[in-house]
Write a structure and sequence with these properties.
The protein is of the alpha+beta class and 133 residues long. It folds into two domains: 34 residues, no CATH class; 93 residues, no CATH class. The strands form two sheets. Strands 1-2-3 form a three-stranded antiparallel sheet. Helix 2 packs across helix 3.
Length: 133
């Protein structure tokens, strides 16, 4: 994996507050707050590759308050899961809630899909057969 400056980095470990990374060329380590990591698209892309969330899909978000508004775009399934992570945070849940649900996914066919904590926010998507990893 490459760092922001283009240098190769490797994951070294984590706890509830920080993740540790090491630059390959200098063997120097640095810490990144977990909250910052959870907002980084590179984290979600890497998690998506590890969990098989690399399919291209049609993403749609609809808000029906008075007159309905919606946005649709092409993206990857990891982007959808990232939205499924963010929405429960807005509803008062913790990141631990999302990841506990992810770990408890009973079937490999669920592909890490979590129970809907948003009351209608994270349901099914149409998938194509393209892969990004």
């Amino acid at each position: 994996m490459q760092g922001v400056d283009g240098g190769e980095i490797a994951f070294s470990g984590a706890n509830n507050e920080y993740s540790a990374w090491t630059r390959i060329d200098t063997q120097s380590s640095f810490l990144i707050p977990v909250q910052e990591t959870l907002l980084d698209p590179a984290f979600w892309r890497a998690l998506g590759c590890a969990l098989g969330w690399s399919e291209v899909c049609d993403l749609t978000m609809t808000c029906a308050h008075g007159e309905a508004e919606s946005q649709s775009y092409r993206g990857y399934y990891w982007m959808y899961q990232w939205h499924c992570f963010i929405q429960p945070l807005a509803n008062g849940y913790t990141p631990a809630t999302f990841f506990a649900q992810l770990l408890n996914a009973s079937s490999p066919r669920r592909r890490g899909r979590v129970r809907d904590l948003t009351r209608g926010g994270c349901g099914r998507l149409r998938h194509s057969q393209h892969h990004a990893c």
